[in-house]
């Protein structure tokens, strides 16, 4: 088995940190790590014996927790007979996280591209084992559950196993907004993006076990927190079997790096790219159809067509809004699908060239402007003709359509303005990771200092650094 520190040195390390920071680490040990690893049943140990596993911890300023997490993961795998190692991916820490992780027995690599997804992708690529387990280095996940996550993989019942946290979460361990709004909402969207093939509760759990090669085949590209959603959606597309097991969830050690709204928007953007039909095209089409139905309803009014507050008036107002939002959202879905296909996030039998897509928008926009102009002329003729060609209710519905068609047409005619935004590429490649650094200055900080000295603004595109060993 590949363990780099004996247990006696683990205890020495813990005693050292309890002396330096007794308040924080004593509380953590009594809460999470005081109990010994629970021995497994013989049949479970036989199943796990000799399995090659790498636990990957993304790390950004987790000095107080990363060492304890590394130790607990190693102890758990050793007790289960697992051939296990731990990789900590330092993502620009400015504290002693890398040093603490190394002393605790982990292999530390450095990824200069910021982001949760960038760190995990680097750790998965650096792993040499058949199985990989990802977890946060903040003390929140139940690392004793590593054998339970691995069992379905070794039994051939699953290709990915998630540690489900919501059953054990409390207001102390998970904010109310995340527990009851954010996580359920994102999980719902993830399920819709996979056409409800997933039957999971906690799509945002960062405690996952999987076969390394299966995940590398997905060619994941996210660098931020949206990596969790992308992994599930693309795994479902690849027909990987995904299960959940219940795990405990503890209060994190140190300051949280999660930004509720910005990270939530990143998830939403990723889901939009991966499933534009579910998130944009279909809702846009339904809104457009609803607008037409409301116009027809309003045109049937015979007595209250012009009265503010009447049903026909409400129908015209709502139809006017939906008739603008619907086509724009529908076209947004088309743009997102093109973006996803050209960047490799989705596959397509026939890829429409960008110039063809823009031409279609221009033609559609010009057609709508022309139709609105014709409708305007008809309304003017109807106004000046006696008797009128159409009833006032029909004229009111037609005028609402004319306004909407004119606005949507102008938006589509402006399509060439969005073309430059469709030409960028996702980060399919990351900067190379470093195994060690020759000084005590973290590589990201040293790089920033060097750039400041030479007057560089920063790298453009994909930056690389040499892979070197100490």
CATH superfamily of the largest domain: Spore Coat Polysaccharide Biosynthesis Protein SpsA, Chain A
What is the third-level CATH name, the topology of the largest domain?
Spore Coat Polysaccharide Biosynthesis Protein SpsA, Chain A
Strand order of the largest sheet: 3-2-1-4-6-5-7
Shape call: elongated
Your description of this structure?
There is one protein chain. The protein contains 16 helices and seven strands. Helices cover 52% and strands 8% of the residues. The chain starts with 6 loop residues before the first helix and ends in a 16-residue tail after the last helix. The chain has helices at residues 7-20, 22-33, 42-48, 66-79, 97-104, 116-126, 146-154, 176-193, 212-217, 227-237, 260-274, 276-299, 311-342, 354-384, 392-413, 443-454; strands at 52-59, 83-90, 107-110, 131-134, 160-164, 208-211, 242-246. It folds into two domains: 7-273, Spore Coat Polysaccharide Biosynthesis Protein SpsA, Chain A (Alpha-Beta Complex), CATH 3.90.550; 275-422, no CATH class. It is elongated.
């Amino acid at each position: 088995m590949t363990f780099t520190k004996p247990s006696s040195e683990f205890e020495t390390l813990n005693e050292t940190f309890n002396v330096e920071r007794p308040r924080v680490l004593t509380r953590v040990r009594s809460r999470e790590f005081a109990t010994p690893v629970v021995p497994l049943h013989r049949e479970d140990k036989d199943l796990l014996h000799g399995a090659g596993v790498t636990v990957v911890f993304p790390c950004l300023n987790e000095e107080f927790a990363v060492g304890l997490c590394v130790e607990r993961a190693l102890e758990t795998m050793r007790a289960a007979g697992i051939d296990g190692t731990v990789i900590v991916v330092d993502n620009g820490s400015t504290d002693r996280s890398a040093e603490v992780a190394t002393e605790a027995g982990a292999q530390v690599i450095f990824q200069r591209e910021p982001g949760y997804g960038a760190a995990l992708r680097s750790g998965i690529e650096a792993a040499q084992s058949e199985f990989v387990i990802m977890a946060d280095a903040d003390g929140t996940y139940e690392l004793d559950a590593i054998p339970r996550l691995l069992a379905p993989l070794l039994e051939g019942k699953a290709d990915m196993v998630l540690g489900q946290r919501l059953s054990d979460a409390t207001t102390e361990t998970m904010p109310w907004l995340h527990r009851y709004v954010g996580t359920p909402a994102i999980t719902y969207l993830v399920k819709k993006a996979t056409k409800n093939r997933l039957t999971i509760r906690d799509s945002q759990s960062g405690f996952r076990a999987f076969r390394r090669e299966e995940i590398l085949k997905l060619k994941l590209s996210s660098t931020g927190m949206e990596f969790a959603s992308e992994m599930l959606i693309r795994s479902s597309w690849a027909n990987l079997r995904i299960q959940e097991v219940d795990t405990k969830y503890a209060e994190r050690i140190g300051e949280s790096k999660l930004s509720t709204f910005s990270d939530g928007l990143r998830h939403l953007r990723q889901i939009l790219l991966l499933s534009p039909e579910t998130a944009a095209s279909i809702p846009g089409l339904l809104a457009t159809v609803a607008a037409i139905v409301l116009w027809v309803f309003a045109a049937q009014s015979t007595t209250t067509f012009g009265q503010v507050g009447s049903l026909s008036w409400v129908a015209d107002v709502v139809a006017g809004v939906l008739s603008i939002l619907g086509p724009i959202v529908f076209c947004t879905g088309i743009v997102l699908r093109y973006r996803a296909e050209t960047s490799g996030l989705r596959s397509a039998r026939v890829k429409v060239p960008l110039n063809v897509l823009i031409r279609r928008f221009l033609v559609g926009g010009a057609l709508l402007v022309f139709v609105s102009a014709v409708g305007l002329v008809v309304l003017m003729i109807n106004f000046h003709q006696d008797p009128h060609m159409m009833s006032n209710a029909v004229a009111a519905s037609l005028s609402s359509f004319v306004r909407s068609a004119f606005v949507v047409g102008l938006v589509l005619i402006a399509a060439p303005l969005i073309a430059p935004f469709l030409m960028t590429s996702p980060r399919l490649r990351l900067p190379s990771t470093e195994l060690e650094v020759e000084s005590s200055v973290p590589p990201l900080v040293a790089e920033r200092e060097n750039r400041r000295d030479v007057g560089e603004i920063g790298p453009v595109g994909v930056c690389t650094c040499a892979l070197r060993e100490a």
